[in-house]
Design brief:
This protein is of the alpha+beta class. It contains eight helices and seven strands.
């Protein structure tokens, strides 16, 4: 039985970890050079049109993770709507998948302002591909992944293809080359909030330390189990419509924190927000029209108003 969805609670200028999974966990995001290019194009364009600070990301075969700072819940919603809708269309077109693409709405979990919790979430995202035994290093992942950009400090580039204009040109039988409807989008990753004051060289050094630690853990796992990583070539040959037998799912925490004090503070803030929201929603259901919902909330739809007799 599914648990009720928690209200979206994003205080101003929050760091959040966003996760989204494909429908039934199918491998619709199977990495390939083409999909990597398209994914980076959509991600870069979304961050430009709906400005957010993107710190890290990893796109696996059936889900992705983002670590992002957003000004409020509305900006996050608009950014994710653009990212998910466009990525679903482009990846679906590439894999010839015409059904529902995402299993459900994205999940956004707050990350506290503690350095320990922020670094832990960065490390968690960087470890994707290695911790599952798919590749030996985050740098080996053939899909869209932030590891190399964090180590080099260089921007990421992807291709945005305007399929609407291309389809219109094809209907009119206009002659055009393949690059006429594509542009290059550029994405610069932002430093973690706790590392903003560090010099760029120091940040790259710390990123490299994390990656090397992940690689050591991957080698230890291989020695312990006797199973080498699946490898790039096998990943590229996976069936995109394959449905895994088992998907790890569990209740999402309210926030990622490093101390009980931070957890308690966020719980109090969320309960205050929830109480104000419920009180406003009750007044709205009773017919009041001058209802004020707490800042940062998405109010429910207005009740039906019958025509006067």
């Amino acid at each position: 039985m599914d648990m009720p969805r928690r209200l979206r609670f994003i205080p101003p200028e929050s760091l959040v970890e966003v996760t989204c999974r494909t429908v039934q966990g199918r491998l619709l995001l199977r990495p390939s050079p083409v999909l990597r290019d398209l994914t980076l194009g959509v991600l870069s364009r979304a961050a430009r049109l709906y400005p957010v600070e993107l710190h890290a990301f990893a796109f696996l075969s059936n889900h992705f993770h983002l670590l992002v700072t957003v000004p409020d819940a509305q900006r996050l919603a608009r950014f994710m709507n653009y990212l998910n809708s466009n990525l679903a269309r482009k990846a679906g077109r590439l894999t010839r998948w015409r059904e529902k693409f995402w299993g459900r709405r994205y999940q956004a979990i707050l990350v506290s302002n503690e350095a320990e919790s922020q670094i832990a979430r960065l490390r968690y995202i960087l470890s994707h591909g290695v911790k599952e035994g798919l590749v030996a290093s985050p740098l080996d992942w053939p899909g869209a992944h932030c590891a190399r950009a964090l180590l080099t400090g260089e921007p990421l580039e992807g291709r945005w293809v305007d399929h609407t204009l291309r389809s219109a040109a094809q209907r009119k039988r206009l002659k055009s080359d393949s690059g006429s409807f594509s542009t290059v989008e550029t994405l610069w990753l932002a430093p973690l909030p706790c590392w903003k004051e560090l010099a760029e060289g120091e940040r790259r050094h710390r990123h490299r330390e994390i990656v090397e630690e992940i690689e050591r853990e991957g080698r230890s796992r291989e020695l312990r189990t006797g199973r080498p990583p699946l490898g790039r070539e096998v990943l590229l040959r996976q069936d995109t419509r394959h449905e895994p037998n088992r998907i790890d799912k569990g209740p999402a925490p309210l926030a990622h924190v490093a101390s009980s004090a931070a957890r308690d503070a966020l719980r109090v803030a969320y309960r205050t927000f929830l109480g104000a929201y419920r009180q406003a929603a009750e007044r709205l259901r009773s017919g009041a029209l001058d209802v004020i919902f707490p800042e940062g909330a998405f109010p429910p739809a207005m009740p039906f108003r019958p025509a006067p007799l």
